[in-house]
């Protein structure tokens, strides 16, 4: 089974914005699952507005990479695919809706995110974008 997701990569001062959904103890790169018929950018804009209350500018979106990894605790063969984008935004990111809290993570926090997010952390560290 494939879980198709899109995520917003927001880095400031060598740290990446992460979010923890209500009722969970794991942080993720903000974003979420695609709904039927949605493009990457439509999913991204909708999910980030729902989760963080900010409006992304799709005209500024840049693809960072697409990552796939097994999902811990799921049925064997369950894989998540995460298409990652940067984008300019309006507003101040803050937890809303299903998000309990946000945090800014450096590479030292890599073990606090799921395997698919860890792949992004590795690439960002190799590029010198993540402290």
UniProtKB/TrEMBL annotation:
GO terms for molecular function: hydrolase activity. InterPro entries: NUDIX_hydrolase-like_dom_sf, NUDIX_hydrolase_CS, NUDIX_hydrolase_dom. Its cofactor is Mg(2+). Residues 1-126 form the Nudix hydrolase domain. It holds the Pfam family NUDIX. Keywords: Hydrolase. It comes from the Bacteria. This is Nudix hydrolase domain-containing protein. The lineage of its organism: Bacteria, Bacillati, Actinomycetota, Actinomycetes, Kitasatosporales.
């Amino acid at each position: 089974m494939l879980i198709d997701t899109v995520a917003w990569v927001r880095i400031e001062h060598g740290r990446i914005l992460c979010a923890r959904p209500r009722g969970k103890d794991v942080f993720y790169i903000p974003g979420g699952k695609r709904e039927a018929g949605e493009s990457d950018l439509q999913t991204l804009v909708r999910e980030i507005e729902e989760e963080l209350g900010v409006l992304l500018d799709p005209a500024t979106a840049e693809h960072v990479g697409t990552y796939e990894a097994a999902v811990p605790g799921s049925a064997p063969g369950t894989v998540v695919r995460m298409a990652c984008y940067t984008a300019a935004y309006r507003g101040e990111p803050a937890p809303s809706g299903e998000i309990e809290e946000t945090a800014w993570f450096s590479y030292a926090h890599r073990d606090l995110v799921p395997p698919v997010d860890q792949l992004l952390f590795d690439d960002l560290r190799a590029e010198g974008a993540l402290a």
